[in-house]
Each structure stands twice: as C-alpha cells, then as structure tokens.
Amino acid sequence: MSKPEDFDEHLKNLGLKLIKSLEEFAETERQPWENPVFKTRYMNPISGTRYNMENAVQLSMAAEDQGFTTPYFLTAKQAFDAGMRIKKGSEASWIAQHFVIAKPLTKKNSQGQEEILLDSDGNPKMYRRVGSKQVPVFNLDQLTGPIPDKIQQIINAQTKIATSEQVETVYQSLIDTMPTPLTRIIEPTGQHNYYSPSNDSINMAPSNLFKSRLHEFHTLAHEVSHSYGHSSRKNRESLAKYGQSNEYRGFEELVANLSAERTADHFKLEFEGDSLEEKNAAFKANHESYNLGWAVAGLKDNPMKIWDAIRQADQTSSTMIYAMSEDLKAKLERNPALEVPDILKASIQAKKDSEAAYEQKQAEKPTKTRKYKR
C-alpha cells in the first residue's frame, strides 16, 4: 500500500473498515478479540517488540491486502543490517509513530540574549508538541536471504504457549502489580467480579469458583484495566460516565476487554479448543450488560472514535504489561529457575543482543583526534 496523502483520512477509512468487521462479529455474538485484526501478534523480530494495537490494526489490513503469511515487520535499515534484502517491487506498509518534542521556553533578556524561563521550583518551563509521522516497514515475506538466528529465536518463542506453571507466575505478577486493593467477597447479588470506582478497589470471587487460573487471569485483567481508568490514573471519560449511556458503557467495556486480551496475549496465555467458548461465556457472565453492539453504535457515525478506543486500550495494557514485565524480570534475576513465558525470555535476550551490538558498533568507531595550531 502506498503512503496515504492524508493520515487522518487514512485512519478514518481504516476505522470504517474495522467497524464493519466488528459489526459482523456483533451480529454473530462473537467477541472482538476473536477477530484476526486483534488476535495476530504483529511484531518487530529484530527488537522483539510487539506493535501496539493501533499499528497492529493497520498492519493486519496491509497483510490482508497483500497476502502476507507472517506477522513480522521491520524497517528497511533493520533488514539490511541483518543481512537481508528487500525483494524488487515490494510495496511498503505504513505504521504510525507518535512523538513528543520538548524544549525549554526562552525569552530575550535586556542584552538581547536568549534566557531559559524557570517555574516556581526553579525548573525550566517546557514547551511540548505532540506529533505523528508515518514510517514504512516491510513484511518478512518481502525479504530475501537467510533468517538470522536472533529473528528465528523470536519466531520460535512465538509458537510456544505458556505452561500452567508459567500462567501461575504471570497471574501472581498481575496481583503483585495491580494498583488497587483486592478483596474476595461473595456478594448476595451474584455480582462477584467488579471494579468499584468509588472505593477504588477490585472484588473477585474466590479462586475455586473459576474453571481455571487462566479464566481467573482474564477476568482479573479486565477489572484491572477498569481500575486504570480511575481519575487518579488515566482519567478515562468512559469510566467516569459509565452509567450515563450505553455508548460510554460499551466503549469502556471494549477498552477493558481489549486491554485484558492484549495483556494475556503478550505473555502467550492462550485458551485452546472448546475452552474458547468458555472464555467468552466467562466474560459475558462477568459483565452481563456488555454488548459489542453498543460500542459499535456509538462508533459508527464517528469512525475516528474506534482509534480512541484502541489507543486507550493500548495505553492501559501497555502500562499493565510494563509493570508485570519489570516485576517478572526482577523475580527472574533473583530466581533463574522461575517459570516465565518463553516469549519474555526471548525479548530479554533480544534487548541484550541489541544493546551489545550497539556497544560494539560504538567501540569500533574510529577515535577522532583534535588538532591544535601552535
């Protein structure tokens, strides 16, 4: 796909296409995370970094249009540095890269010199500008040459589903890093699993009432996602106005469900076979009011809103994933025998390899000597 002339128009068209896809799933009462758009793990195989959901949606559509068979995308420079080449005639796919430009505010003093403005604490006042740009990437199918070992290691790790011991480790990490208190009370109303914004706490049914630890993880991750919408954290409007309309309710549930799914997906916690239906039933039982149709109805007339939902889910899950990854890395350092998902180990190794390669490159640079005139 060629580079879109207008980025907003590009997102709007993709949003319309995605909403149509979600409508089809809503009609069959299937959940959005069953959609390949959200289910496929789009990844940069050099760094081991997963593309965020916003870019994953764009890459999934590029993959559909061009018939790619792999979810791995990297830049032309990364491919070149890895010893691979781009096939002649290959068309780039595009991802969004958001950035913040920050610089100190200045003013000219009486001597005409630039002077940095300071706040009441004596720190520089900063000017910040948020921007976006589109970056071209290429699918692994578009490259020639042998696949380097470090890429193959990431690919191999992607095929390994977490064991029950690894699920237990990740589940405990979610509990250890969640930002709110956790209680275990069986409510007379039967609503056992919920987040209370007024108390800023999560209540869950006792573990023995869940069919598996994986079911419990998904339910807890869903509630943790809600908790991050609190005014003291991400201040999500859809949580604050949850009871005001079906649009807010559907939007918030979509954000929470996508956040929970991406968090589980990141650590390779997967349901298999018939238990997929059990997972959907578990979410519906936890939130009887949830209906994807509400979210779709609210998004249909404003296709850019779908990107807002995706970004908020991505921001929330990224916060959860980062906290859990740091927690698991620290635990792994203390106990190398700890059962953690293989994808986490592969990502840690990929980062170490990248840092070592950078240091080696810096060390090989010729030292410049400065000449002085006498």
TrEMBL record:
It comes from the Bacteria. Residues 17-112 form the N-terminal domain. Residues 354-374 are annotated as: Disordered. Residues 186-272 form the Polyvalent protein metallopeptidase domain. InterPro entries: ArdC_N (IPR013610), MPTase-PolyVal (IPR041459). Pfam families: ArdcN, MPTase-PolyVal. Signal peptide: none annotated. This is SsDNA-binding domain-containing protein. It comes from Pseudomonas paracarnis.
